[in-house]
Amino acid sequence: MPDGTTPHFGPATIRIDGRAKVTGAARYASDETVENPAWAFLVTSSIARGRILGFRLDEARAVQGVLDILTHENVGGEAEKPKPMAGGDTTETMESDRIWHDGQIIAVVVAESFEAAREAAHKVRPDYEEEAPSASFGSAGVVEEVRKAGEHKDYRVGHAERAFRDAEFRVDQRYGTPTQHHNPIELFTTTCEWRDGKLTVYEPSQFVYGLRGNLAKQLRIAPESIRVVSRYVGGAFGSKGGITARTAWIAVAARRVRRPVKLVSTRDQGFTIVTYRAETRHHIQLGADRNGKLTAFRHEGWEVTSRPSQYNVSGTETTARIYACPNILTKVNIVHADRNTPGFMRAPPEGPYMYPLECAMDELAFALRMDPIELRRINDTQTDPATGLPFSSRSLMECFDKGAARFNWSARNPVPGATRQGDWLVGYGCATAAYAANIGASSARVTLTPDGRARVQIAAHEIGNGAYTVLAITAAEQLGLDVADVAVELGDTNLPAAGLAAGSNHTAAISHAVAKACDGIRERLARAAILANDSPFAGGDPAAITLSGRALNGPGGAQESLARALARTGEGPLEVTAENIPKGLPPDAMEKVRQGQMAMSRGHSRDDVTAYAFGAQFVEVRVHARTREVRVPRALGAFASPRIVNPMAAHSQYMGGMIWGIGAALHEKTEIDPVAARYTNDNIAEYLIPVNADVRSVEVLMVPEKDETVNPLGIKGIGEIGIVGMNAAVANAVFNATGRRVRDLPIRIEDLL
Amino acid sequence: MEITLKVNGTERHLAVDVRTTLLDALREHLDLTGTKKGCDLGQCGACTVLMDGRRVLSCFTLAVAAQGAEVTTIEGLATEDGPLHPMQQAFLEQDAYQCGYCTPGQILSAIACVEEGHARTDDEIREYMSGNLCRCAAYPKIVAAIQQAKPQMERA
After folding, report:
1. Domain end (from B30, B48, B75)
2. d(CA A575, CA A520)
3. A279 found inside a domain
4. Residue ranges of the Aldehyde oxidase/xanthine dehydrogenase a/b hammerhead domain (chain A) (predicted)?
5. Which ipTM did the prediction report?
6. Parallel, antiparallel, or unpaired for β A38-44 and A105-111?
7. Contact B74 A24 (CB under 8 A)
8. Predicted confidence band at A5 (pLDDT cuts at 50, 70, 90)?
9. B103: domain range?
10. Which of B28, B84, B140 is closest, CB to CB, to A698?
11. Does the residue B15 lie in any domain?
């Protein structure tokens, strides 16, 4: 295997699944054909808290084509509550009469057609006993508690309270981030088909084995009797990571009507039947000496969750280790409200928690009359300040320097509100981006066929991350073939297990498994070669034999064609299945993945190093002097990584993350009715995501980095870091343009009047 | 009710509910699943198809109302192993997508954008492509793909 000691950027490769995507041939879950499907339509609650007294169903049943109506009264005992990937518990749906949040699934109508199911669903009349709900922070009836150590922990180094009190320069501010919804363009769909007691589920998923294992528990059947298929996922961003309530009910419906049942939920239902990014609040205290050296860092966060869940993201685990500081104190609180349970959304901890830190650093730089990049340089460190471990690699200042040069940062006027071009106020801002380098356990099967082609089979996930292509590149490189010679099959629990495609770990996890299987093939070919008298490698060292150019190559220029070497291992194809359990994970990690649990080594909880990816982000904003409209004409991100498998798709990942950041800073917010505890802009015309006209120049610099310990292939994840620094970079640029410091996102015209 | 649709040059007979949208007719009755449902509310553009050369939202068009029109879907731009339409080729080469879900709608909208004469500048393309949302945010590369395909389309 190549290693991370030398930075390695692979060849820019057009996606191997690209043709399927541009011709409409790619089959997303709801595109899979099943014979004679019935259609499901969900009925969701119109109150946020209370009980269902009963249903009046006559009108709904009278709709022509209705086959069945599921409610807690007739199917409540047929499935158990789903188990979320994090946070322990979640709300019920049709297991009981209880309403936990607005938009909760309370009935499923099944009919001959989509149109009939929809009509009947609108005619289901529930009677409620309603209670006053609690919507969010500040609502009467919410319950606040200090988050205990468990999935996440706090850091206490030195004496942060005292150091802050004694500091020469202080920033003491509160910040907030809003509720956000993933809104992938693909809706949340599920198709279930029973055949001979076996269930096939077509559902877009970031973890097919997780869906299988957890659905099996809900339905009280063996995981082996379920097959989950998800060949293409139409955007996920965390929303398709954990199992949600709908799946089991569609399986139950299909069993009842003895036909495949297909659900395509509506856009507004997507706001309440799956997870979301909960709103957060922050209290940041930074203390520094007159030279800008940090002396104190305190970060306390508050996060909303549902009544029964402990879900929280605790981004203090990242903010505590960004800058050298001798006194650190972090704390996180969770606030229970009558809401659906939140979950992972792109850079779950780093998005909302790096924003206040990076704004506070900008505020400190301003107070010190110091360039914000210089403040970060003064506080840069190669040692994790929270634990004392070395970073596996940290090229943060290299990213700042390369990015600043390219962005022309030196043209920035440090005086806020002083740069005007025509009707536009111009400002520059920057921020640090960081994301833990995670890697999960994974297995894979690779088959080499006599015609010189290879097949890679793995239950990995194509969610736009370019997984098909990454694996074709990896296998081609390891086996000495061309990318075009490799076929890749993904997204099916009939294939060897792979873990959750989240936490920016997937490329690292699946590439290592495939590389290991390829190395198994190399080893088998090499061992056969050294034992054969007719081979140029006879009696040699198998470890010295490598695969390249469709041939085995050894010391002294010895060479033999792949076809000839393969023929020696027996008739037909050579198949090797391998597992990769990353350092630090228990030996049963792979079995856990097969059972549908997460098994991931996290960059901030290793015992040898702290492994993070770093980047620097720059933004130019223009604020209209009269209307206060904010535009982003330019953004630039410089990101360090030891290895980039496919620079073409990687560029898109970084760029897409940055545009997400522009959206998060300026557009996105799910509005909540404080009385009804209801999302009011639950569609993608009123939930504002960036459109083409919102985006102009977005530049990405990939900075090569040396790293000998992150993992053998030197892969740091790239899917999420792009968003991390953008919120603060935009907010800091708005301050530079206007002198107005907006601490609650998103920044809108009304904040700048 | 029984209707006849002309899709990608072929007449197709099907029985639909009067409420069935062109989008659902294509996907669920004709197995042309390249056209995607992203909102069913005319907000996202994923279901864009061409009707008599004009881009329309198939979720906002009833199947019965599409009778008599020439409907072109993403499947109608290239044969299975044949050469791609210049716009499809440009999307491939510019990596103008990630998950690929909005891509069929983007490509059909992009073709119409060029044919309408609304692709004269990057700014004009951005404006006239803003009805097609891309949550992976491939926008700058979609603009680049249209700029790449435009001269080839104009020559053809």
Report:
1. B75
2. 9
3. no
4. 23-132
5. 0.99
6. antiparallel
7. yes
8. low
9. 86-155
10. B140
11. yes
